[in-house]
Amino acid sequence: MEEKLTLAIESSCDETSAAVLRGGRTVLSNIIATQIPVHQKFGGVVPEIASRKHIVNIMPVIDEAISKAGVELKDIDQVAVTYGPGLAGALLVGVSAAKSLAFSLDVPLIGVNHLEGHIFANFISHPDLKPPFVSLVVSGGHTSLVHVKGYNSFSLMGQTRDDAAGEAFDKVARVMGLPYPGGPQIDRLAKEGNPEAIDFPKALQNKGNYEFSFSGLKSAVLNYLNSMKLKGIEVNKADVAASFQNTVIEVLIGKALQAIKETGCNTLVLAGGVAANSSLEARLRAAAERNNIRFCYPDKILCTDNAAMIGCRGYYQAEAGSFSNLYLNAVPGLALQDV
């Protein structure tokens, strides 16, 4: 029996993406139209502009994905789409396109949680990966630890109470005068600095606590910069970036290793946009090796927002009979929860 063809759509923030997958893990195409140059001059994503750009990009991106996959629209068996979390207007563009296509093709519609999609990106990069495992999801708006027990069974162990790691990276970069997006800028600058130069605080460090908080760390960096300015002392930006990044990474590694120990899993999976941070990936890999844990990490193109990961998650939802109806709506505040 031939594996199903899934057309997937992702438009949760500032990337318009469409992909075609055969089965759950074979990517035939994965087209991404980024808006980073558009939003750079504003120092962050402007929701209204993002929505308008998605409207312009959505159909050409879908057409290109279909063409590059070497299939036709009539060959598509199901349509998967991100319906949250994300920017309301941006999500609505993708959801509306997906509903129209599913209706016109008379095929099932699958609404996908964007954060679950990030975890499933690893199934594409690692064809032999199977549950159970622990996933550390680190993105712009979310930081979570998830115990993935099966393809459609997972338990949320803990998540951020306030600022996510990616959000803290962007905010710290902004106060340091670094261009948007801030995460890669901090990562680059940190390579030139001393990670032990400044002692920044770590929150929620008690054993067995899998929740995260980075707003205090962000404030500590801001206070440090302001106090140095008042004293007339020149700041070594590379040291600030390295010390800040080191603090974030130590928190993430510590909690991830604790979670592995508690669940009895021997595989740690990194997911989300901040997974593209070279220091985080390298140090998590080293920590996993020291503890005889298998470490999985998606290809760089699958770390940031893309439709291939949405198609992979959608495929496994469909296998479990989890479909959406044509009343599917965008849910900007959709949480990562137990499934």
Low-pLDDT residue intervals, each spanning 5 or more residues: none
Gap from first CA to last CA: 29 Å
Helix content percent band? 40-55%
Strand order of the largest sheet: 3-2-1-4-5
Kindly report the average pLDDT value: 91
Task: Give the topology, please.
Elements: E1 5-10, E2 15-22, E3 26-34, H1 36-40, H2 47-69, E4 78-84, H3 88-105, E5 109-113, H4 114-125, E6 133-138, E7 143-150, E8 153-159, H5 165-175, H6 182-190, H7 215-230, H8 237-263, E9 267-271, H9 278-290, E10 294-296, H10 300-303, H11 307-319
Helix pairs in contact: 2-3, 4-11, 5-6, 5-7, 6-8, 8-9
What would you note in describing this structure?
This protein has 2 domains: 5-119 and 303-319, Nucleotidyltransferase, domain 5, CATH 3.30.420; 131-297, Nucleotidyltransferase, domain 5, CATH 3.30.420.40. A hairpin with a 3-residue loop joins β2 and β3. It has a 5-stranded mixed β-sheet, sandwiched between helices. The two termini are 29 Å apart. It is α/β, with parallel strands linked by helices. It contains 11 helices and 10 strands.
